[in-house]
């Protein structure tokens, strides 16, 4: 499966205060940027509704059918 190139950062729960705090130094924040955990992530297509910040409800997590394969031009 292909992930979007703007996949969000996965920050460990114990680092949330540093990540979300206003006083963290850049090197402190960069140290939190590590590969995701080994546990598998659930990757699935979602609605284009996720592209609008006005949409904020649980249905954004509902899977949608995969888009059809593009037709060849020639």
Give a written overview of the molecule.
There is one protein chain. With 74 residues, the protein is mostly loops. It has helices spanning 16-20, 26-30. It is elongated and about 55 Å long. The mean pLDDT is 83.
C-alpha geometry: elongated
Q: Say how many strands there are.
A: 0
Question: What is the straight-line distance between the termini?
Answer: 26 Å
| Series of secondary-structure elements, N-terminal to C-terminal | HH
Quickly count the helices.
Answer: 2
Instruction: Give the overall average pLDDT.
Output: 83
Any key phrases for this structure?
single chain, 74 residues, little secondary structure, 2 helices, elongated
Can you lay out the helices and strands and say which pair or pack?
Layout: H1 16-20, H2 26-30
Compact overview of the structure:
With 74 residues, the protein is mostly loops. It has two helices and no strands.
């Amino acid at each position: 499966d292909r992930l979007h190139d703007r996949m969000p950062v996965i920050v460990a729960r114990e680092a949330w205060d540093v990540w979300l705090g206003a006083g963290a130094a850049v090197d402190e924040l960069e140290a939190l940027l590590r590969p995701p955990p080994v546990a598998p992530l659930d990757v699935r297509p979602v609605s284009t509704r996720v592209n609008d910040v006005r949409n904020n409800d649980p249905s954004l997590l509902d899977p949608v059918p995969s888009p059809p394969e593009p037709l060849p031009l020639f």
